[in-house]
Amino acid sequence: MKIKSLLLGSAAALAAVSGARAADAVVIAEPEPVEYVRVCDAYGAGFFYIPGTETCLRISGYVWYQIAAGNYRTNSGPGIAGDTTGYYDSTTADGWMKSTRARVNIDARQETEWGSLRSRIRIQSTWGTQVDGPASIDQAYIELGGLIMGYTESFWADSKNGGPSNYGSHSWGGMYYGYQQRHLIGYRFDGSNGFFAAISLEDDTLAGEGYMPDVVAKIGVSQGWGAVWVRVGYDESFDGTVPTLSGLAPIAGLNDGGFGVQLGAQINVPNSPGSSFRVFVHYADGAHAYNVGSPSAIFGPTAESYYGGSEWNVLVSYNHQFTATFGASVAFQWWNDLYYAGSDLLSGVDAWGAEVSLVWFPVQDFEVRAELHYDDVGAFRAPATPAPLDPDGTISGFLRFTRYF
Question: DSSP class of residue 15?
Answer without folding.
Answer: H
